[in-house]
Structures are given as C-alpha cells and as structure tokens.
Amino acid sequence: ALEEANDCLSDLPSPFAYLLTIHLREGRNLVIRDRCGTSDPYVKFKLNGKTLYKSKVVYKNLNPVWDETVVLPIQTLDQKLWIKVYDRDLTSSDFMGSASVALTELELNRTTEQVLKLEDPNSLEDDMGVIVLNLSLGVKQGDFKRNSSFTRNVRLSESLRKNQLWNGLVTITLLEGKNMPRGGLAEIFILLKLGDQRYKSKTLCKSANPQWREQFDFHYFSDRKDMLDIEVWRKDNKKHEELLGTCHVDITALPTKQTNCLELPLEKHPGSLLMLIAVAPCTGVSISDLCVCPLGDPNERQQISQRYCIKNSFRDIKDIGFLQVKVLKAVDLMAADFSGKSDPFCVLELGNDMLQTHTVYKNLNPEWNKVFTFPIKDIHDVLEVTVFDEDGDKPPDFLGKVAIPLLSIRNGKQSCYTLKNKDLERASKGVIYLELDVLFNPIKASIRTFKPREKRFTEENRKFSKKILSRNVDRVKKITMAIWNTIQFLWSCFLWESTVKSLIAFVVFVVTVWTVELYMVPLALLVLFAYNFSLVTTGKELMGLDEDEDEDDKESEKKGLIERIHMVQEIIIAVQSILEEIASFGERIKNTFNWTVPFLSVLACLVLAAATVVLYFIPLRYIVLIWGINKFTKKLRNPYAIDNNELLDFLSRVPSDVQKVQHAELKPSSSSSPIRKKRSTL
C-alpha cells in the first residue's frame, strides 16, 4: 500500500516539494477517559490547523498499537507537525493530549524514531503517556501534472479503508434473566456494547426471571480484540436509572460457525443472563475504485447472480442479496466554510451498515469515484446517502441527504438525486450522482418479509417537537375521519335517508349474507388490489399525504425545570409516539392496497390467492385447529423461539405516507443542472 501511495504521489502539483512518511506505531500509558477505566484512542495529524490524516480507533486500550503508514505532501519546512490524540465516544471526542515535531529538525532521506510526550495545558494530569512513531522526510522532484485535489484523496489510505470493513457478524439472542434482583416497581432493561456499537433491549416490568427473547446483530472486526459488555439497568417511575450488574464475553474466544448457549453470571451481584451467541463470517462488504468494481467484471457478476438465482433460494437463507453503489460526484453543494467552500465527504448507511468516502477539500463540486458494496439483509431497507462537511475537531456540518428504497433502484443507470434537508421533506442545495445495482433472491426476500425487522443501534432519545405532534394528530385525524364517514354512510342506509341508496344496500346485504363463503374474503381483497392496480396503471392518483409546508417551530430548551414539567413532557412524547404508530399503521394498510411498493403488493396478492385456495378446499375448523396446535406447541418445539406477528412484520416493510415523501426522488432544479449551466455559459 505504501509503494502504491508513493507511485500516486509521483504526480503531485508543483507547490509540494517534500514528502513526509509517517509510520504511527503505538501509544504507551495513555490517560483514562472512559468510566470503565480505559480509553478508545485514535490519532490526528495536523499541519497549519488542518487535519491531514486520522488513524483507526483502538478500543479499550491504554497501550494501543496502530502500525499505520501514511505519506503526506509538504510545501515548506517552516512549520510544525501536530500529533493529537482523542478518545472516541458516541457523541463527541475527549482530548487525551498532543505533541509536535518541527519539520526543520528532520534530516532528509533518513528515518528517525520519535517518542513524543503528550501534554495538555488545560489538564492537571502530569503524565499523559507517549506516542511512538517513525518519520522520514524526502525531496520530491520532477514534472507535476495533476491537480491538488488528488493529493487530498490519498487520505483514504489502505488502513482507513480496512478500518471501515467488517468481516464477521455476531448474532446475539437475549433470552431471559434468572434470579435477577428485584426493585419494587422498577423496570429492567439490558445494554449491550461491542466497540462503539450499542443496543438497548426492551424494558420489562419487575420479575425475577424476565423474558426478553430479542435478537441483535453486531459487526465483527477480526483485527480488534473487542469485549462484549453487557449491563443490566433498573429504571424507576422517577426516571432514575441504576446499574444492577455487568458481565463480559470475549468474542474472540468463542468458536465460529456455531451457536453458543451461555449463562453469564452478573459480576458482584446475584442473578445471571441466558443468551445465544453465534459468530459467523460476513462477505460482500468492500470499498474500491471505479476501475475494479465487483459487478464490472462479467465473471464476478455472473457468480454473484448465480448465488441469488431461484435454485439457490434455500441456501444461506439470511443472504438476501447484494448492493453495489457507485458514488461519482456532487454538484453545486452548500458552502459551509467562511472561504465560500466546503470539505465534503459522503456517508452511506444501509440499516446498521455504514461506510464512508474520503474527503475532497475546498470544493463545491467534489468527485469521489468510489464503489461501495453491501450485503442485503432485508430487501425493504432504505439506502441513505448523506453529504457532510468536515470541520476539523468539531462534528461535521450537514450538507444534504437522499433516501433510496432498494426496491426502487434502477440497475446500472446513473441517476442524479437532489439533496434534501435532514427531515428528507424539502430540497437542500446541490445534487449527487450515483449509480446503483441490486441483485437479490425474491424467495429469500419474501420469507424475510414475514420476520422481525433488524433492530437499529441505540440512538439519542427523541425530543418533543410541536411540529411532529401536530403532523401526527393530522394524520390520525384523516384516518379517523375516513372511518367515521364510512360508519355514517352505513348508518344513513339504516335510516333510509335516501330510498334508492338504502334499497340497494339492503339487497346487497341480503345477497351477501345468503351467498358469502369464507374464501370470498381474501378474494374480495384481491379485487381491491386489482382495482387500485388499474388506477395506478392508468396514472390516476390515489389518496396520499400532502407535504407539510409549515416551517419548523423554534423551540427553546430550559434547564432546571421541575419534575412535574418533566413528567408532562414525557407523557406528551409518549402520546406523540403513539399517534405516529397509529397513523403509520393505518397508512401502511392503505399503501399495501395502493401498490405503493409493487413487490409487497404482489407478495400480498400471492398470499391472498393461496389463502383463497386453502379456505376453499379446507374447512375453517381444521385451519383453526392447526393454528392453535402450532401456537400451543411452539414453545415446546423450540424453547428459545422469538415471538412475532407475521402480519405486523409484513406491514412494517410498507412505507407510511411520511416515508413516501421522504423517499420520493426530487427532480433537479434548473439552477442545479450542470448541463444548463454549460448552455447558459455558451
């Protein structure tokens, strides 16, 4: 990788006369920044206040070994190279000390070992540890042809690329607790942590043997020695949380490709946790250049297509499909810096999977030209591509975002997407060019549709928003009014307000009751699907949700509010969430019949057709008997089975009206189109 970097740097622009090779080796006796008595350190190298390279994170280690090499172009030697160490947290980074090296003190073409003592003038700690690295300064000569933005792209070195790619999957099934300590009216929940990945279980009421029956998937990096940390928490009615106990699991010590049943005793507390842990290899995750993209090779494309063909539908049932994303470029981005420029980079998210491009510095029209691949766990997932502006040590600034459902992807077609705001409801400034390909097995995807969705990593608690509450109230009001109007119509038939209408309703009622059979119920729903499909094909609009054009309300946060205000706010947030769930449930049912997602509507039609045939040939009493026997014996056949409702799991894949607006593709405005700009220039 170092030789390739040197070859790439052979065409540096003329202002760069030197090459500085840095071999970051290790840290020794670093300071503690986490409550567990350790730190998650990483290193940034800076020149003139600008970050040129960031190392990988070494988790839970005060003597980290990085062993990373990077080559940096240098203009002049009258400056200092700053080495700053930080502790990685979920929301921010804690400073762990810094050191500097004067470039004028380095000898040309000679590698020197530097043992640098870390210091922080704002800290009272005397010994903050040392950083060990090798530095080599060389002179760059020759004809330079490429632009300076290319040198910045070297920032995505092989070590940074490898730091993002996981090669395994840790599947944890949290079953139950045994002899857990009780706490009056308190509720119990579990926190699971592996590196910077966190999950929170559902909260259960007091019980000595609580039953969770939840499954969680963690990314596994074989080059990291991460410990699985499990914490048991108790929460009372006053929102007070107390740690009841902890336990730890060394993932590297577990055998792979098999399910391990573990009963883990809590440290320093009574009780234990019963869980299943399986470690399996994971393929399909990669970052590459355009010239070596996986689906660009006909042989490799054929192999991947063969893996997801119909005849392999029951091999590796969890491997649903394969997604390839070419992140090409962005045009006319928002300027986030005072200089009128931005330092943009892209973050791609598919469920809990996340990959990132390199940063293109001082450019509103960046070109990344990178290829990312993801394994698909659920064909109903949504790919989110977010553009950020790198802002040094501060959190990056948001520039724009797009959300693309996998089922809406047009394979092999370069598409221009208008960036949206954080809520994905209105257009932001700029467009991004992507080329997407998705290959999947429809039978595996159909089976996965009726299983629980993957849980998301723990995020920050949601805050109260008057806008969201008002929107959810309006959504529920629309559905309630539709139901109320239907009831009023039926009631008016009983009251004979219109003789013709009531007479027709009476005849329909008598004929229906006299001739209806149970198999006709799914058949009637099929007719509704067919009717709405005819509306879709003819281009007629179905009922949907208008975009909310109201501006965001400005909300102020006040600290030190009394407990009653907190209680009222918590109730309002709960009501807000309930309203959103009710509105989404009704909209998902409507959108299933409206052919919003053709794949799901076809799947529903197939299930209804099968139900029609089964109910036509098999008496209802036998079906009910089989269903009851299955439900009563499920726990006996599989003691560790996770309960689920197939119908609710299916509906969870159908987008609500709000998600339809968020996932809708915006047409680029004339001002954002580079083609129009060229024409106007001509």
Automatic annotation (TrEMBL):
Q: Tell me where in or outside the cell this protein is found.
A: Membrane
Q: Name one GO molecular function term.
A: calcium ion binding
Cofactor(s) annotated in UniProt: Ca(2+)
**According to Swiss-Prot or TrEMBL, what is its membrane topology?**
Multi-pass membrane protein
Keyword annotations for this protein, in alphabetical order, are: Calcium, Developmental protein, Membrane, Metal-binding, Repeat, Transmembrane, Transmembrane helix
Query: InterPro entries attached here?
Result: C2_dom, C2_domain_sf, MCTP_C
**Pfam family of this protein, just one?**
C2
Q: Which residues cross the membrane?
A: 479-496, 503-531, 599-627
Domain of life per record: Eukaryota
**Domain C2 positions:** 1-116, 152-264, 298-419
| Transmembrane is among the record's keywords | yes
Q: Which residues form the signal peptide?
A: none
Question: Does Membrane count among this protein's keywords?
Answer: yes
- Cellular component annotations (GO), alphabetically ordered: synaptic vesicle membrane
Function summary: Might play a role in the development of cardiac outflow tract.
Family in the record: Belongs to the MCTP family.
The protein, known as: Multiple C2 and transmembrane domain-containing protein 2
